[in-house]
Specification:
Number of strands: 20
Radius of gyration: 28 Å
Largest sheet: 11 strands, antiparallel
Distance between the termini: 94 Å
Helix content: 10-25%
Length: 412
């Protein structure tokens, strides 16, 4: 046993001495490990990237990260995410804001342009055909028979739609997300609504902008979504498939509903009980949803390219309960505490609200099907423009300089 240990040590020593020798033709010999590493990083210059540079995987002369193929994760630089078509798009889904007369003229103009100029098959929701604002418009009568229709929760659009265009506010993008519970076509959103944080395009000169996108010249922001599975107590006992399996773009909200009592919710991360939430409720959101309900509840705003999940309490009955950000790969489970006085209620992107009873559980994790949102400029510019224009981020009067203050003092 001692002989084998000694032989292994001698072998490692020989390998160490070989690794520190200079290559043939080098004037230097016997270089230290530190000098070798210094030469390796001397010419390093960081390129434009939204990700940190890959860390050195060797720590000192002996330590290094164990290579495990099951743990390898490659994150593409968001700045390099650009749209490409491996075949020309033939069909387009046009979603417009409901009950808004101002959207009707742009909607008709866009649909007619897709049909006549681009020879594309245009899909619209069946309810659009009954819109009184459209029925009474003569221009719509000329193209009505050329449209394809679908019904939500009935028709599967997964293999039918190549491209999606939204006309309205952020709600149109959330609705588009709900229609595709797996892979989502590229989405181009025009700002014709109230807020428009997620809709970067202006409708003026839409022909040039859409043509540019159809030719494959556009940057993409991959907006992560959350897979939310509500497992009822009866479903788990009878080994049934959960009836509620929903993807959300913004957030899933668990609140106390109509009850006057505090909600008492247990939060698990990767199977471990982290805390019990006592307050009005809990928001689990994506980075995209960080600028929605979560920011109103005191959370930080996170760029949509950051792989993370936000957990934000709603009016917690504790001064120390602050919002937290966890890695995107975490599995979350939410249940009503056994000693809770009341049940809780769950909503998914503000829709499909239902009760979370004792014994039920809500599983939340990051989905592999993001929303490919087309950028008007790029990922960074679009986001900060939205912060400034929609939320008036860091808007205040500029501080006067010393010369102006001196003039004011002398004037007195």
């Amino acid at each position: 046993m001692q002989d084998s240990t000694l032989a292994l040590a001698q072998c490692l020593a020989r390998q160490s001495s070989l690794s520190t020798e200079s290559p043939p033709g080098s004037p230097k010999s016997g270089r230290t490990h530190a000098s070798i590493l210094q030469e390796k990083i001397q010419g390093f210059r960081r390129t434009r990237s939204l990700n940190a540079p890959s860390p050195v995987q060797q720590f000192g002369p002996c330590g290094r990260i164990m290579k495990n193929s099951a743990m390898v994760m490659t994150i593409q630089d968001p700045a390099s995410q650009r749209l490409t078509w491996y075949k020309p798009p033939l069909s387009v889904l046009v979603i417009k804001k409901v009950r808004d007369a101002a959207v009707i003229p742009p909607f008709i103009e866009l649909v007619e342009w897709f049909i006549t100029e681009k020879s594309m098959v245009v899909f619209v929701e069946s309810a659009v055909m009954d819109d009184p604002f459209l029925i009474n418009n003569p221009a719509f009568g000329l193209i009505k028979d050329k449209l394809m229709t679908f019904t939500e929760n009935k028709d599967d659009l997964t293999d039918k739609i190549d491209f999606v265009v939204c006309l309205g506010g952020d709600g149109t993008l959330l609705y588009a997300s709900s229609l595709f519970q797996m892979s989502v076509p590229p989405i181009m959103a025009f700002h014709l609504g109230s807020l428009g944080f997620l809709t970067p395009f202006k409708f003026q000169d839409f022909q040039t902008q859409v043509t540019h996108v159809l030719e494959g010249h556009a940057a993409l922001t991959l907006r992560s979504r959350l897979r939310c599975i509500l497992i009822k107590k009866e479903e788990e006992m009878n080994n049934l498939t959960p009836a509620t399996n929903q993807l959300v773009l913004n957030e899933v909200v668990i609140d106390r509903g109509p009850s006057p009592y505090l909600s008492n919710i247990d939060l698990y991360l990767d199977g471990k009980l982290i805390t019990s939430v006592q307050g009005d409720g809990l928001i689990v959101s994506t980075p995209t949803g960080s600028t929605a309900y979560a920011v109103a509840a005191g959370a930080s705003m996170i760029h949509p390219s950051v792989p993370a999940v936000m957990v934000t309490p709603i009016c917690p009955h504790s001064l120390s309960f602050r919002p937290i950000v966890v890695p995107a790969g975490i599995d979350l489970k939410i249940t009503v505490s056994p000693d809770s006085r009341n049940t809780a209620w769950v909503s998914f992107d503000g829709r499909k609200r239902q009760e979370l009873c004792h014994g039920d559980s809500l599983s939340v994790n990051t989905s592999i099907y993001p929303i490919p949102s087309i950028c008007a400029q790029d990922q960074i510019s679009d986001w900060f423009d939205s912060l400034a224009e929609c939320l008036h981020w860091n808007v205040r009067k500029k501080q006067k300089n010393l010369d102006e203050l001196t003039d004011l003092t002398e004037g007195k």
